[in-house]
C-alpha cells in the first residue's frame, strides 16, 4: 500500500492505494468521481481523458501514485449544471454526443487541446511547423481530437462545439447545427 | 439548462397542434451528460460491493477435465472462485417461442457454470469474486483449466458448403420469389453476377457491458446497460427461479448499444449468480476483451447478387442469396436479401438465405441486421450493372424505381426515393461527375464519386405508458424505454408537450426502469414511434378525463363541449372556434380538488398485457399485409485514393433520407450521421478477425479493431424530406438504422470510380487496391 495525496478539482484527499492502481480507478472507485469513463482501460479510446496541470492525459495509463500533488481536473471540475463550462454548453447546443459515454473524455480532451493549440504546439496537419499561430481549422481539430473515439459518431457536433468555443468559425457560431439544409 | 429560445413563445391566438415536434431542441439529458453526472451501470456504488471477473475457455469445443483454483483462492481478498463444481444451479434458458418474445432474450443457450461443456473459444468457465476489481482480475489469471478437446468447425469461409437454406417463420426471413429469376437471367441481354463478402463486425459501444446485482432474499435489483430491461428482467427471473415481481432492472443511461445490449449475455447472468453465491452485492465490468469474447457481433456473410437487364437499363431479374453464420448454441441469421425484396421493379426476383452453424460465439444483431451488409452487395451490383450498361447509376436506379412492392404488389405506405435522389444530386453536384473511372484527379489523389440507396424496415412494438398531470401544470411521463443515445426522452418530451399543449419545460420523462410501465426494446428503429403511439393515446385519454372534470362545473367555459371541439394549448383546453374560451389544466384540477390526475395505457395486469400484445401483434400483421412501411435514402460519397499507396480517404458525404416525420431535427440528424460513420467504418476498416484454426478472436480491442476517428472523416451532410408517413400516428417511421445501410456500397462504388478497381470484399483496405 502506498499513500498519496490526490488534488482533484481543487480538493485534496489522502488515499491509501495499491501502487498498481491506475489514476482512472483511483478517481472512479476511491474518490467516487465517476464522470471519467473507462472505455478500454488500455489507452485506445480516450474516454478516460483528464487534465493534469492543464495537460490532457489518459488516466487509464497513469498510475495514481505518480500524480500526488499534481493539479488534476476531471469533467466534474469543469462545470456543473447551471454553471457549465462553455465547452459543455457548446456540446449540448451542437449535439456533440449521443449516448454520452465518451463525452467527459471528449470535453476534457478539447480543453487540453485548445490550450496546446494556444501554446503553439503543432500537429501532423499543421502546414508550417515554425509558425507561431496557425488557425484552428476543422482539419486541425479532427487531427488533434482523433485520440477520442465516439462510437455514436457525434464527431461533427464535437467539431462544431470546439470551433464555436474557440471562436474560429462564424458558420458554426451562427448556424443551427441540426438544420443542415 | 440550455434551452432553445423558440420555446418562450407568446401565447398564440389559436393553439397550434405542433409546437415542439419538429424543433431542434437540445437534449434533456445534456447538462447531466456533459457534466459527467449521468450515471451508467459501472458508476453505481452500493454498500458491501464485491467485484467479479471472468475466466474464458481457450478451446473452441470440448469438455472441462480439470480446474485448479487453489492459486486463485489463495490471493488475499478473493471471496470465491465459482466453477461448474460449486456454482449454484440455475434454470436453463427457455426454448424460443413466438408467443413470448422474451424467450429471445438469452444471447446463447449455454447454462453457464452449470455445465462442463465448452461451446466456443471464450465461453466463461469460471468467475472470480473479490473485494476489488484488480484482485478479481489478478486471481482470474491464476485459474488453470484443462480440457478434453473435441473437433470444432470454426472457419466460416470453409463451411460454405454446409450452409442450409432457412425456412421463413414469423421471426426469420427465408426464401422469397416471384417469377423465374434464373430463367430470366439466362436470357437477359446484360447480366452482372458476382460474389460479395463482408467480415464479422463488432458493436464496440463505448460503454463496455457491466452489471451490478444486489439480492435481498428473493428480491433482485440489477443495474445493467440494456436495450431491453423487460427481457433482462424476465430472463433473470426464470434463470434464478424467483418471482418476476421481485426482479427490478435499472438502466437509465446506456453508453451505446447498436444491438449488442438487447440480448442478455453471460456477464449479466454470472454477476447475478456471483451475488447469489457469495451473499454480497457484486459488480462486474467487462473488459473490452471480455466483451468481444462473450457478446456476439455481426456475422460474416458471403452473398451472390445477379442482375439481368435490357440494354435500356430495365431490370428483368434480381437474384440475391446469402450465407450467414450462427453459433451451435444460438445466434441470429442476417436476412441480407431484405432490401432486395423491395428496392427494384424487377419482374423476376429470387431471394434466399442460408446459414452455416459453427462452434463459435453466437452472432447477434448489429445496427440494421440484414440491410447493413445486404445493401453492400446489392448496391455494388447495381453500380456494376450501370458500368456494364454505360449508364449513370442514379438514372439506372430511377428507371427501376417501383410504384408498388415488386414481390407482391403491396403499396408502400410512403416512398419518395426519387425526391431524395433529386435533392441529393443537386446538392452534391452529381452532374459534374465524369463517368469513366480514373477520370477525376487532384494531384496524386484519384477522385471518385459513388451513390447507393439506403433502406430499412422499422418495426413497431407495444408500449405501455402512464401520464400524470399535476395541478401546477407539470406533466410526468413514465415508460421503461431505453436511452442509448438516440435522444429518446427528449423526443417523448416533445410529443407529450404538443399533445397536451404544455411547454416542454413542464414535461418530465422517466425511463429505463422495470418499475415503470413496460416499454419497447431499443431496436429495429421502432422505439420512438412505438412509445409515441402509446403516449398520444394516453394524452387523449387524459384530456378526456380533464374535460369530464371541467364539465362538472357550471362555471367552466368548457361545459357542454366535446373534446373534438377543443384544442390543447397554453397549458389547458380551449375551444377551437373561440380560442380565448377555455381554461388551464391547473384551474380545472384545482377547482375539482384534485392535486393530479393520471392515466395509463392498456393495463398493468397480466391479462391487460397479453391483450395489448395480441392487439399490437394483430395490428402489425394487418399492416404488413396492407403495405410495406420502409424508410429509404440516397447516399452520395466522394473518395480520394492515393495513387501510390492505395490509401482511401472519404472526402465528402451527403445522405438524403425519406424517414417520415422527424420529431427532433437535431437528434435525428445525429443518429443518421452516426449510422453513416459506422458504415464508413464497415467500408474501410472494421473487421473482427477470428483465427480459423482455433475459433479465437484475435483483435478483441479498440487498438486492433478500427472504428472511425475524427481524422478519418469529412463533414457528414445529412438531409431529409420530412414528410409524414400517412399510416402512422404523427407520421413517424424510424431513423436509427437506415443511416448505415448503403454506406459501404457508396464507398466501394466511389472507389471503383476513382481507381477502376472493383472491391467486392469488405473492408476496402489499401492492399485490395494495389
Ligand atoms: S479507458 Fe483510457 S483510453 Fe480507453
Ligand atoms: S456519444 Fe456515445 S460514444 Fe460518443
Entry summary:
The complex is a heterodimer of chains A (181) and B (770). Chain A contains seven helices and five strands; from the N terminus they run ββαβββαααααα.
Describe the structure.
Chain A: This is Xanthine dehydrogenase YagT iron-sulfur-binding subunit. Chain A: GO terms for molecular function: 2 iron, 2 sulfur cluster binding; metal ion binding; oxidoreductase activity, acting on the aldehyde or oxo group of donors. Chain A: It comes from Geodermatophilus saharensis. Chain A: Keywords: 2Fe-2S, Iron, Iron-sulfur, Metal-binding, Oxidoreductase. The complex is a heterodimer of chains A (181) and B (770). Helix content of chain A is 33%, strand content 14%. Chain A is of the alpha+beta class and 181 residues long. Chain A has two domains: 2-77, Beta-grasp domain (Ubiquitin-like (UB roll), Roll), CATH 3.10.20; 86-176, Orthogonal Bundle (DNA polymerase, domain 1). Chain B is α+β, with helices and mostly antiparallel strands and 770 residues long. Chain B is built from 16 helices and 30 strands. In chain B, helix 12 crosses helix 13 (585-591) and helix 15 packs across helix 16 (743-755). The longest helix of chain B is centred in the last third of the chain and has 25 residues, at 527-551. Chains A and B meet through helix 1, helix 2, helix 3, helix 4 and helix 5 of A and helix 1, helix 15 and strand 30 of B. Residues 38-41, 43-48, 58, 60 of chain A line the site of one FE2/S2 (inorganic) cluster (FES). One FE2/S2 (inorganic) cluster sits between chains A (97-103, 150-152, 154) and B (206, 256, 485).
List the defining traits of the structure above.
heterodimer; A: 181 residues; alpha+beta; Ubiquitin-like (UB roll); DNA polymerase, domain 1; 7 helices; 5 strands; B: 770 residues; Aldehyde Oxidoreductase, domain 4; seven-stranded mixed sheet; 30 strands; globular; disordered N terminus; binds FE2/S2 (inorganic) cluster
